[in-house]
Amino acid sequence: MHERLSFYIKRDSVIHRLNPLTKLVLVFAFIGVAFTFPWYWMSLSLFLFVLIPLAFVAKVSREYFFTATRLILPAAGFLFLMQALFQPIGEEIIFQFYFLDATRESLAFAFTIAARIIVMISAFTLLLLTTHPSELMSDLTRRGLPGQFAYVIISTLQILPQMQAKAQTIIAAQRSRGLDTESTFLKRAGSVLPLVGPLVFGSLVEVEERAIAIEARGFTSKKEKTSLHEVPDTVTDKTIRWVLIILIILSISLNLWL
Amino acid sequence: MNININNLHFTYPTGLEALKGVSLTINAGEQVAIVGQNGAGKTTLVRHFNGLLKPTSGSVTIGDWDTTKYSVAKLASRVGYVFQNPDEQLFSRDVLTEVEFGPKNLGYTKEKIDELVKQALVWTELTDKTETNPYDLSPTWRKMVALASIIAMDTPIVIFDEPTTGQDFANVSRIANVIAELKKQGKTVITITHDIDFCAENFERVIALSNGQVLLDGTTREVLGQEEILAQTYVDPPQLTRLGKLLNLKETVINQQEFLKAIK
B3-78+155-237, superfamily in CATH? Predict the structure, then answer.
């Protein structure tokens, strides 16, 4: 079957070829700058003029926009509304919604927060789309990240697509037994158990099997491990990382200084 | 109830073209095995029979029903589909409720359900396990529960996806018995399998798929005799068939009886 086991899209681009750590630092640079740089339009500019072009460079623009419209923008929009209406700051009322008022200041504040969140999630999306989880983890463990920690991260990254794939098969199996998942609400509600049962149980069994499988390969062994798969780390990567770190420091200092 | 497949093409949303123009007719009461390498399109093809997949172009009709016009739940009354992994469909607290689930969905009368469930349990040799939780059974028995839960739906067409994978000899014979019983009742049985001996012993017609197209289609003897063509889809004829070839036997043999008769 053609199930995707992670968000990763296998393509060849400059971004794909970067070392995973470089991309991780890039993500934190985006977040650091968006949250600290003392310029009102910084987050939005980052999103429009850096993140979106990067998605094109990485050749994942289609998948990126799909995630953006389905997940990121709705979340940011909701956040914006909540912040705009519930922030008790400012005097100048722009509009009212029953007893809630949105003021110039609360709108500005909501905009900042929403834009920052957009940058944060977008940056992570870009990382996940261009980096295979196991590559990221093998690079990080090689640099000294404890294996257990890497396992927790990698299984979190993979569990959603995996459960989704599993759920698809279960739904198919139960529909083949005449389970009506398409008609009235009552019938649909009644069809939850046959779907959730195998999903939860199967996932638990899978977790246990996986634990046994990795233990059989010496997961908790204290010996130093070697990696079959070498992740390249070039001079360009190192340079980019240092530039990014300087940018973060610069942004934080500007924030403190101004 | 005949299955008519007319110039069926199917492309997955990922862009993978899994079926490239398949045309077949499977008549009521036929026992058909579908073989072929991984990725040849076997599962994709049979998932069109109960409407889980709808053709990108071309058509599939089950009796007088065009699969695009009926929901999977509706088509379930005509086509039963046993999935490869029983854990993906079992959810009830005991075997009996599990097996009753399908026929209840189809809205049969109480008497009919009881009768069908009883028969399915007898065929799968589960009569003494009706109160067990399916998850307390061994994987081989869980497979039988999955089988029973589909057979009890009394559909004129039954599909098995890799029924013998990971099963011991005893269970493979049980599955073969179930297929023989279904045949006696005049039902169509379609099986995807990699187990070529199982295929040779239990099916009269074999369809070999390769790369989304029909490579060979004919009686089991005709198809399994074409060693070179089968090699294209990485299927080896049964050992006895190959031995017969090496011994330069005149006819293609596919099972023990035939082999013994030929070398006498």
Answer: P-loop containing nucleotide triphosphate hydrolases (3.40.50.300)
